[in-house]
Amino acid sequence: MSGTDSRPAPKPPDPADSVAEYLRRNPDFLVHHPELVAVLRVPHDCGGAVSLIEYQVDALKAQCRDLRERLASLVDNARGNEELAQRLHRLVLALVENHGLDDLFATLYQGLEDGFGADLVALRIFAESARGEDRGLAELVGPVPEAQLFARLLDSGQPRCGRPGADQLVWLFGERAPRVGSAALVPLTIGERRGVLAIASHAEGRFHPSMGTLYLRQLAEVLGRLLAPRVR
């Protein structure tokens, strides 16, 4: 006779039994881990109807999902605002270090293109230079009639985002105007003078009317302070 044991191999333990036994020995488990309640499905036998408890649990789960999504969105926005504030801070420091208007304008254009993703930038100041070495710069246009194109913008003192008027675009960007999909027009107060900073994108949705303009207003204040002693 063969000595081989013909008995069947023992059945491996079912993990579900271990979990069930653990919960029996720790009935307050969910008290210490309430986050699991939102993902567990607890049946309530009410025939074909949905029990009030089950309805409440489903509603709470939906609220939790909504809160998680809103929190994630807030965190993303906070990170984006922090990065934007840091880029603006670096740009302001770079602007302060420039002494001539020509260098200041070049630094502004480069900073907006590199740090803020601008495709086109135009700056027009309705004043003349107070320094001989800065005269003749294209940005200093004097008290020209075209300033009326921006009368409402200048009177409001608030940046406007979206699609500027065709006449405004042509005057600001010339032959490049058709390439502008959207833009931010920022009014500048430079002592008793005014000006306009235009930051444009090829994309239509890059600048839209509902976007925040806090950092644009802060940049406008910095430029106003830096330019005031240099124009008349």
Secondary structure elements and their pairing?
Layout: H1 15-25, H2 29-32, H3 52-96, H4 101-116, E1 120-125, H5 151-156, E2 160-162, H6 166-173, E3 182-190, E4 193-201, H7 214-227
Antiparallel strand pairs: 1-4, 2-3, 3-4
Helix pairs in contact: 3-4, 3-7
Short description:
With 232 residues, the chain is an alpha+beta fold. The protein is 45% helix and 12% strand.
Q: Mind explaining what this structure looks like?
A:
The structure is a single chain. This protein is of the alpha+beta class. The protein has seven helices and four strands; from the N terminus they run ααααβαβαββα. The chain has a four-stranded antiparallel β-sheet with strand order 1-4-3-2. β3 (182-190) and β4 (193-201) form a beta hairpin. The longest helix is centred in the N-terminal third of the chain and has 45 residues, at 52-96. The chain is elongated. The chain starts with 14 loop residues before the first helix and ends in a 5-residue tail after the last helix. The mean pLDDT is 84.
